[in-house]
Input
Amino acid sequence: MSRESMEYDVVIIGGGPSGLSTAIKLKQLNSSLNVCLLEKASEIGAHILSGNVFETRALDELLPNWKELNSPIKTKVSKEKFLFLGKTKSLSWPTWLLPAVQQNHKNYIISLANLCRWLAEQAESLGVEIFPGFPASEILYNEDGSVKGVVTQDMGIDKEGNKKDSYEPGIELLGKVTVFAEGCRGHLGKELIQKFELSRGKDPQQYGIGFKEIWEIEEKNHEEGLVMHTAGWPLDNSTYGGSFMYHAENKQIFLGYVIGLDYKNPHLSPYDEFQRFKTHPAIKKIIEGGKRISYGARALIEGGFQSLPKMFMPGALLVGCDAGTLNMPKIKGSHTAMKSGIIAAETINEHLNESKDLSIYEDKFKNSWLYKELYEARNVKPSFSWGLILGIIFTGIDQIIFRGKLPFTLKHKHADHETLKPANQMPKINYPKYDNILTFDKTSSVYLTGTNHADNQPVHLKLKDPDLPINYTLDKYDEPAQRYCPAGVYEVQKENNVSKFVINSQNCIHCKTCDIKEPSQNINWVTPEGGGGPRYGNM
Amino acid sequence: MKILVAVKRVIDYNVQIRVKEDGTGVVTDNVKMSTNPPDDNAIEEAVKIKEAGKATEVVAITIGEEKAKETVRKALAVGADRGIHVKADGILEPLAVSKILQKIVDKEKPDLVFMGKQAIDDDCNQTGQMLSALLNWPQATFASKIDVKENKLEVTREIDEGLETIEIGVPAIVTCDLRLNEPRYASLPNIMKAKKKPIEEIVAADLGVDVSPRLEQIKVEEPPKRKAGIKVANVAELVQKLKNEAKVI
Output
């Protein structure tokens, strides 16, 4: 099929912090470069979800005058708390005993979605062409195997794959360099990592699922600038995870929970762990009398240094969490994503001007503070595979005494889809009923995300073997997709005693957890029609 | 023939609306905004008529704050030839909007004015009708089919009783129903081209129209929460509850 094509110097896939930083830095270095940026969401920011306590280090480098540019970075962290939760008790851990990476007094509580909207304005004012509502669906390769560009998603295809009257074919966007900035588990990044064997010699990537709700709480419970983290209940000692609660402006708090996707019990429901976490007395007393106004979830990178793939290949670069630059012990990935984008832009500029090979990206990366940060953080997450208590003890020694300089590197042994134990060997978990005050069902939660996909389009969650969920996964793992999906996309329905696997793809909030956790890697997340998915506000 | 199409920027229909705590309105900060859906149908129809060779120019107009220009830009990306942005801040009631449109019609002299049947934010469903009265032009509201004939239109209207087909003379106002057509997608090359199409900027105050609200808004509040249902054991209990508790039979 012949498609229209457009040529650019640089094509960037994804309008998050890494892609936007790449775009801004490129135009700063050379304003005559033609740079375009594609975003699958209906607008920049609508698919962004993050805590977020923001370290300004990369932004200080990118836009040193950000304070004068009406940026949405306003709430400085004023106080910090760390709690260990038992079932009803809580123990406050003195913050001076936290490793330096977990101290936040110089940082800001922000909405990353709003930061991205603002970064997009900066990029557009520099001449970057930004196209929201256009997912990149395929990668184009040159004859020599190098990346040539991408094709945007066709629009107006019906469920059966036929062209509707409104059919609008995708177009080819060709770049001298293509930058993939899709975020954690980008579906094109996944293809590139496989095709160019970018993960060879690296540990398997590790992921988590992060939930976030925004609550408007009573004034007496609100303390603007307060950052609180918890570990412990409701998770058991062997499951990695914890909560965050950030007191933002306007009596809002950003309340969230992250669970490592290397959990073993297929009966575990990350969503329900988060819901019941809110009933703990230490949390309940803060949100009681308040109102939940937003909900969302997104997978995140936890593998760090050991799992970071090679980030360059012929014709293309990976930036941010499409590669995996999040700093896990710091619980921050925005500044590292932005830094990787800045380095990528410098690389591309030298590549285009001085014909330097894209492999200089790696040298630049190794000489940056980003590398040093990720290197020093590397042993924290794997140590938690020994359980919460040993993990904390080791992390104390590694981070406080040795500051990440211990002369060895712990390994991530398994990919997250390999860690589930058979359902009949693991305890069932009885989650409490939702009370519709503090805890809510998935349907009413997804409603708050503003998620929609144009109806009558192909299902964008592709099963490699459509019979596998019922014939194998249901029996062996009690089909965990019903529980790990934070949006209720997957259901097993019984009709006349015959089980049926149902995919409600219109509910998908683009978190990518199914693509990661499905034990047989049977689910492939691909891009739906442009503009589909959540419409997050200030997430 | 020239068609003027009025488009409005509203909160996207997928967004869950949140009422401000002080009851003065709804939250619009950081909320996804879009073109009012039936206005998309109005633009689509105008562009189709032009593509069929029955119109020579499609002009998209919006009235509102600076960001409302995006709505005109979107109309240009799906085929409108040029745009007009009348800048005005604050609440604009249908009467003010139709008075501004009247001034623009005087200036542009279109043969047809299209717009959505109503906006999904205030649900007024008044602007087309008021403009028709101000201009003393015929109107066809809730159009689900439009046939352009020599100096007249045959319009099928979606009404409570079914479909009504009427014939009206030109110039005329048509307000469009969602069933009129399926709006096209804005393709990437067309979005690029739209960036180069002209948008004329006019300040509402310069048109000599008094846009101050005529209605006093007392309070905005959320609809009351629906109470949870109950299960009854049998018909007898149902009847008893309907009689004694709900007191409806």
Observations:
- Chain B touches chain A at residues 12, 14-16, 18, 21, 29-32, 34, 182-185, 187-189, 191-192 (CB under 8 Å).
- Residues 37-51 of chain B form the longest helix (15 residues).
- The first strand of chain B starts at residue 2 and ends at 6.
